[in-house]
Amino acid sequence: MALHNALLCFVFAVCAATPMFARAQPAAAAAAASAPVGDAAAPQAYTPKGADTCLECHDDETAGYSASALFKTKHAQRGDRRTPFGPGGLQCEACHGPGAAHARNKKATSINTFKADSKLSLPERNQLCLGCHAGSARTAWHAGVHERAGLACTDCHKIHQEHDAVLSRGSEPQVCVACHKQQRADFQKTSAHPVRQGRMGCSDCHSAHGSSAQAMLIKPTLNQTCYSCHAEKRGPLLWEHAPVSEDCSLCHKAHGSVRPALLVKSPPLLCQQCHSAAGHPSVARTGAALPGAGGVGAIFVVVGGCTNCHSQVHGSNHPSGAKLMR
Amino acid sequence: MPTMTSHSSVILLAALGVLSSAAAAVDTSEWKCESCPYPKGVSGTVEAGVGIVSDASNRYGDYTGLQRKGAYALLGGTLRQRGDDGGFVDVTAADLGVDARSVDARGGREGLYALRLGYREVPRHLADTAATPFSGVGSGTLTLPAGYPAGSTALMPLASTLQPLDLGFKYQRFDLGGTMLAGDRWSYSVDLRRDVRDGTRATSGSFFANATQLPAPLDQTTDQLEAAARYTTHNLQASLAYEVSLFRNREPSLTWDSPFTPVVAGATRGQLALAPDNQFHQLSATAGYDITPTVRASAQLAVGRATQDEAFVPATLNGTLPTALPASSLDGVVDTFNGSVRVTAALTPTLKLQASYARDVRENRTEVRSYTLIDTDMFAAGTRSNTPFTFKRDRLKLGGDYRGPGSWRFNAAIEEDDVERNYTEAVKTRETTVWGRAAVRPLDNLSLSLKLLHGERNHSTYGTAIWFGLPENPLLRKFNLADRQRNSAALRAEFNPTEAITLGASIDYANDRYGESVVGLTAARDVAYGADVSAVLTERTQASAYAQTELMRSRMSGSALGAAADWRASDKDRVTVLGFSIRHAAIVDKLDVGVEATASRTRSDTLVQTTISDPAFPTAAMALTSGRLFATYKVDPKLSITGSLAHETYRSQDWRLDGVQPATVANLLAFGTQPSNYEITVLRVALRYRF
Question: Min CA distance, A205 vs chain B (Å)?
Fold first, then answer.
């Protein structure tokens, strides 16, 4: 009930923010909002020669920036009128804003540098990118975790490099683990998806720009994301195993596990969390069950444990597979 | 129309395409870009060389394709072409000399259309040591030589019949796609993908208490097609897509001769039903709309249907048991519905609210029928009806973000997650989670953040699941249904003592308590610490290092008597990962060198006790240490020599496999796979030519 009341308050707040109910803003905010960065009515704020003006100084290269590299990328495609360098485009100033003042005083404070200390705020810098790149994959950016965490587009994307590392499967994880350090460790565990070997990237499962699913997955649910590569698990099957149909992560840790097959726990304990029926499912299997210790009940603990017999753990389409043994 | 003083003028400029108006107002006739360094013609690289692997290891070759000792070809390259009319070609090829090769080719005319063609392989090598007496490996029928069956593994003629088994498969992916832009607002795309798996994997089959590890054939294809249309304006983005996925399995079953003397007459052969052909169709739509420059809504809707109607395999291969079936196939149908809507509103430049609602439904419409319950081709005992599981999930989230005062930033949210299930002990669960995060930059070069989370899950009446044979212990609470209290905290710090050095530290803590669970999972805890440093030591030298450690612990209780807990179990896992790298331009524009290394150590301890004298399981451990020296020498602007020397050691011990040979367990004929250990050195030398 409390959550529903809060939702009503949210709706009211949204209405308050819409034009119908707009209120005068505090003077300080108004003054800041009107500070000119790109004034469409003042062409003289732009440089006299566009990129040729900028390249008089910015012809350098560093580890993270290359003026020349930009011209090998899609942003500088002259034949595409959508790009800053297309016919009639504002070239460098399409993204960095009018540069006449910066060309005169050479100060970083007089132009949008896209850095954290840029004269533009984070939402303003991001909106410059979203102004062209709002479609398709970025539809849900506004409500996503990355946007809420204050991530800038340029935190992950490097426009002034020939190869944007985050757009290549092999190098993409290096960008993500700059923040997602736990996953860097997970990929080093005993079993893991092949990210460490460069065979998968984070975007094979996640949509970094936001999605409607949990954990920004590329499909609407976790299971649908898994089925996009593991379609053999999709079914439907005659005899389903409830946790399999509900959520793969009930038994698996997708980033990596200290156990084989990305399992969160090994059989038999993994299974005994849910199976306690009288008979062998509820019997405690201690170290005494190991072959070297006497071995009574070894079949329940070594190799696949419960799955030595119940091998069809993801479900079975066999008419006699009710116990997941056929 | 909102007044200009109400919102940032730049946001308006960008979001409403006013920049294009700016472009029209600015005279760009002199903006000739004469000094713009556009590449001319075709450019690219070709890399060719040789690699040498010092030793053989399937574990090392898993995913890498370098499982064999000896030399292999290093071959790869890139090709790029840009035309002034928007034409482009991009081709990247890598690892062409090994079974992990990949090619990605794109081309088209930017702003009009683009085509994509891709191919990649992922090799899987699943065991270093495995053996089986079966013939017919790779097919759907496994047979045994003379001397079988036997009463136990000790009585089987294994010494003369075991053959080495190379478990693994090749995974291939083919991609073909195209995108076309029609005017300023519409775009259309079609993507085709084929995944192929070909080889073997491990499974097992049993007859009552006797089990046998079996090599199952993999000959599977998944074909996926997605067609989409997208509409984009400055404040509206919409798309409509149709996706179909077809899974085909050319080996629908695995039949094997039982190596164990039959306990019941006729129980000499068994048959596993492998994954049946299935297909999935889904129609989805997304939309995003800027209601105002500060209020945005987006939504997604997807409806799908998964079907499976593979002919049943026989109920049993034992001619003495009944074989009647209520139907010849399942005719399984699962309908899916996924809908979500999200609204964000920036009430002020510093305060933003979000609300979202999502509903996900998996409705299994498969008909319920009654089947004779035949136990591993040995006994027929009653009947069992199938249980088509349906899940419905509703997630409601309300959150806010506030910036200020100063460098402070606050985020908070309250979330409710409701799940409804059928054929279950508790039909409904509800989890309410509250979390808050505060971040601040107390100094220009120091940032801190702290996130706290608290969640509570409750369930409806917990009853008895009557559909699955013997009932569970009434005191058991399945961990996905049980009442649960979850608490977590995450602390982050980043410090730049100088412009060239970045230090980071993190602490993560998560604790789950299942307070009402007398039997089952009762608690889980995860604590992780991390530290990292990156530094630009000189203009020519960059270095980085990191260390992470994680401790995971879980506890559960069980009861052999179907009553109060009479045994307890705990799992304790410890993981430590260290890494560092150094890159140095030894001779500027001539010689680059570097070294990188990682060390990963895991230890798992499992303890199950009915009394304090019960022995623990031995520690399961893994130690992975990798190091690589690399260098690139530029002979001239077009030609470089690259080389690397990589060394990797892998040591593992796992009580589940240690010493478990095919005949170790009397009633389990195992592959005898042992924990992997290897020490491998790989030397790579290649010439890279840039044109």
Answer: 16
B9 DSSP 8-state letter: H
Judging contacts by C-beta atoms under 8 Å, the chain B residues touching residue A316 are 272-273
Question: Residue B521: which of A181, A243, A273 has the nearest Cβ?
Answer: A273
What does the pLDDT look like over A13-47, one tens digit per residue?
555 555 443 333 333 333 333 333 344 447 778 99
**Could B602 and A6 be called an inter-chain contact, meaning their C-beta atoms sit closer than 8 Å?**
no
**Cis peptide preceding A268, ω within 30 of 0:** yes
Q: Is the ipTM of this complex over 0.85?
A: yes
397-426 of B, contacting A, C-beta below 8 A: 398-399, 401, 409, 411, 414, 416, 421, 423-424
Q: Do B13 and A38 touch (CB under 8 A)?
A: yes
pLDDT digits over B129-170, tens only?
999 999 999 999 999 999 999 999 999 999 999 999 999 999
B residues 623..682 contacting A (CB < 8 A): 624, 652, 655-657, 659-660, 664-665, 667-668, 670-671, 673
Residues 6+ apart with CB under 8 A from B392: B359, B360, B361, B362, B363, B419, B420, B421
pLDDT digit string (tens) for A117-175? 888 888 889 988 988 887 777 888 998 999 988 899 999 999 998 889 999 988 999 99
Length of chain A counted residue by residue: 326
Give residue-wise pLDDT tens across range B636-649.
999 999 999 999 99
Chain-centroid distance, C-alpha A82 = 26
CA distance B606 to chain A (A): 9
pLDDT at residue B261, as a whole number: 96
Residue of A nearest to B226 (CA): A228
Cβ atoms of residues B429 and B457 within 8 Å: yes
Three-state SS sequence of chain A: CHHHHHHHHHHHHHHHHCHHHCCCCCHHHHHHHCCCCCCCCCHHHCCCCCHHHHCCCCCCECCCCEHHHHCCCHHHCCCCCCCCCCCCCCCHHHHHCCCHHHHHHCCHHHCCCCCCCCCCCHHHHHHHHHHHHCCHHHCCHHHCHHHHCCCCHHHHCCCCCCCCHHHCCCCHHHHHCCCCHHHHHHCCCCECCCCCCCCCCHHHCECCCCCCCHHHECCCCHHHHHHCCCHHHCCCCCECCHHHHHCHHHCECCCCECCHHHECCCCCHHHHCCCCCCCHHHCCCCHHHCHHHCCCCHHHCCCCHHHHCCCCCCCECCCCCCCCCC
Nearest to A40 among B25, B39, B659 (CB): B25
Tens of pLDDT, residues B615-630: 899 999 999 999 999 9
Q: Do A246 and B577 touch (CB under 8 A)?
A: no
Q: Report residue B386's pLDDT band, with 50, 70 and 90 as the boundaries.
A: very high
Beta strand B253-257 with B141-142 is parallel
- The β-bridge relationship of strands B163-164 and B484-498 is unpaired
Please give the Cα distance from B84 to B499 (Å, whole number): 40
B562 touches chain A (CB under 8 A): yes
The residue-averaged pLDDT of B500-524 equals: 96
Q: Cβ of B562 and A278 within 8 Å?
A: yes
CB contact (8 A) between residue B312 and residue A282: no
CB proximity A311 to B under 8 Å: yes
pLDDT at residue A13, rounded to an integer: 56
Residue A18 and residue B480: Cβ atoms within 8 Å? no
Q: DSSP letters of B554-573? A: EEEEE-TTSSS--EEEEEEE
Q: Quick check: B99 pLDDT over 90?
A: yes
> Which pLDDT value is given to residue B321?
93
Higher per-residue pLDDT: A77 or B120:
B120
**Who wins on pLDDT, A17 or B348?**
B348
